């Protein structure tokens, strides 16, 4: 009984203690509420602090979410940066639609077969990739004009073999006016009329190479050349077919190609290069040709000096090079009767094409009786030269001691003038013959 009484007393004591503690806590809460009520400014400050804490928490959560979402883009950008920082390999890397490896190639992302581009869009986008090529002889005199295009960012240019054939030096000029020099031939195939050269330019804008096996008849194309070095020439046309001669395939196109534009790129409407414009012309059908771009991709490494470039061996029946369409003949020299100095020359040019020819760029090289170059000049003739007809031209240029009296042979020993046709335009906007012009 005594032990039960003690336990009862302890229970009562514990309950009393808990009651007292609860009473004290309640009194303290009431006191704090009275204190807050006594200071009305304290409650808004607490609410503001609580709201600030919640805003800070939400901002942190948003930032963390954005960081997680941007992680793939950051990784992609870092990967591209690491790719650009890799050392340049000696082999040529082409820009394909299925493989993008540099930041410059990212500009071709909108050409991924999602929609066709307009002619103006293709011209604006890829004109900076097209260059003028001037082939020079051993005396630094122009031999011919042509076009080419960058195939990578390290200044490698693709063009026709015949553009640099027989030259000792090559000069290039970009659409923006930057000039460079041809260092050496990297790849070449005279049977295909294609080559790739290394130049002094860097950080160049490449074109996008397509697949010439995927072209279709009737497909629209755009040919871009840069014969003047400052303004691109653009011509539209259609793929009319593919011919096979001497084991070579050529794409027949209706877009007119001048000699100065040969070597330039031929685009489809997706902005992909499907061919390289060449200076071949079918005189019967008035069709130009392009070498399929897939040939360019298969060229083998062949390092050559310009002076050792082999002659082009391709000869196709019924197809001629455009350089042969203008024939120069019947050259006459005019002299001053008193001094016997050369005052000018007269010559004739015949148009072998079925269309009128205009804007003929002619370069004159004057040599003395020993074959030494003593002067040169250039002139543009507006024309037109009508189809199948010759036309007389002249060029005034004074040369002292162009001829002299040879007392041994008792005759005049005179120099020579070499006339080089650099470029011209075939005007297909009017009718075929002079009779048609009269009766139109």
Keywords:
440 residues; alpha+beta; Thrombin, subunit H; Immunoglobulin-like; 2 domains; six-stranded antiparallel beta barrel; 6 helices
Structural account:
The chain is an alpha+beta fold and 440 residues long. It has two domains: 113-317, Thrombin, subunit H (Beta Barrel); 323-435, Immunoglobulins (Immunoglobulin-like, Sandwich). It contains six helices and 22 strands. The strands form five sheets. It has a six-stranded antiparallel β-barrel with strand order 1-2-3-6-5-4. Residues 80-112 have low confidence and may be disordered.
Please write out the topology.
Blueprint: H1 2-38, H2 42-84, H3 119-126, E1 130-136, E2 142-150, E3 156-159, H4 161-164, E4 169-173, E5 179-189, E6 194-199, E7 220-225, E8 233-245, E9 248-253, E10 265-268, E11 273-282, E12 287-292, H5 293-297, E13 301-304, E14 319-321, E15 326-335, E16 342-351, E17 357-367, E18 373-381, E19 390-399, E20 403-406, E21 411-414, E22 416-426, H6 434-439
Antiparallel strand pairs: 1-2, 1-4, 2-3, 3-6, 4-5, 5-6, 5-13, 7-8, 7-10, 8-9, 9-12, 10-11, 11-12, 11-14, 15-16, 16-19, 17-18, 17-22, 20-21
């Amino acid at each position: 009984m005594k032990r039960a009484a003690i336990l009862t007393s302890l229970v009562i004591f514990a309950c009393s203690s808990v009651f007292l503690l609860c009473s004290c806590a309640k009194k303290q809460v009431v006191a704090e509420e009275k204190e807050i009520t006594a200071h009305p400014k304290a409650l808004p400050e607490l609410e503001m602090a609580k709201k600030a804490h919640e805003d800070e928490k939400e901002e942190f959560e948003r930032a963390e979410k954005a960081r997680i979402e941007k992680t793939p883009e950051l990784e992609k950008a870092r990967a591209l940066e690491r790719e650009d920082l890799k050392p340049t390999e000696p082999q040529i890397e082409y820009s394909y639609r299925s493989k993008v490896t540099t930041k410059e190639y990212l500009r071709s992302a909108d050409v991924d077969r999602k929609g066709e581009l307009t002619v103006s869009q293709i011209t604006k986008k890829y004109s900076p990739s097209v260059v003028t090529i001037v082939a020079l002889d051993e005396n630094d005199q122009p031999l011919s004009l042509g076009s080419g295009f960058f195939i990578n960012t390290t200044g490698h240019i693709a063009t026709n073999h015949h553009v640099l054939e027989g030259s000792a030096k090559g000069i290039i000029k970009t659409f923006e006016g930057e000039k460079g020099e041809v260092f050496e031939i990297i790849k070449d195939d005279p049977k295909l009329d294609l080559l790739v050269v290394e130049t002094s330019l860097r950080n160049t804008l490449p074109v996008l190479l397509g697949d010439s096996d995927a072209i279709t008849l009737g497909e629209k194309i755009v040919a871009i050349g840069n014969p003047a070095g400052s303004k691109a020439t653009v011509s539209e046309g259609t793929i009319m077919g593919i011919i096979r001669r001497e084991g070579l395939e050529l794409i027949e196109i209706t877009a007119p190609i001048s000699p100065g534009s040969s070597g330039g790129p031929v685009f489809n409407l997706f902005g992909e290069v499907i061919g390289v414009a060449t200076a071949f012309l079918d005189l019967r059908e008035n069709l130009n040709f392009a070498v399929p771009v897939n040939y360019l991709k298969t060229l083998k490494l062949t390092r050559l000096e310009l002076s050792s470039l082999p002659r082009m061996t391709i000869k196709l029946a019924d197809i001629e090079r455009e350089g042969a369409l203008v024939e120069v003949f019947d050259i006459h020299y005019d002299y001053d009767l008193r001094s016997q100095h050369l005052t000018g020359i007269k010559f004739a040019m015949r148009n072998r094409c079925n269309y009128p020819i205009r804007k003929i760029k002619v370069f004159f090289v004057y040599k003395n009786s020993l074959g030494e170059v003593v002067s040169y000049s250039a002139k543009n003739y507006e024309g037109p030269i009508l189809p199948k007809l010759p036309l007389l031209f002249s060029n005034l240029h004074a040369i002292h001691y162009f001829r002299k009296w040879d007392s041994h042979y008792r005759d005049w020993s005179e120099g020579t003038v070499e006339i080089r046709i650099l470029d011209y335009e075939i005007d297909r906007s009017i009718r075929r013959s002079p009779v048609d012009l009269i009766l139109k």
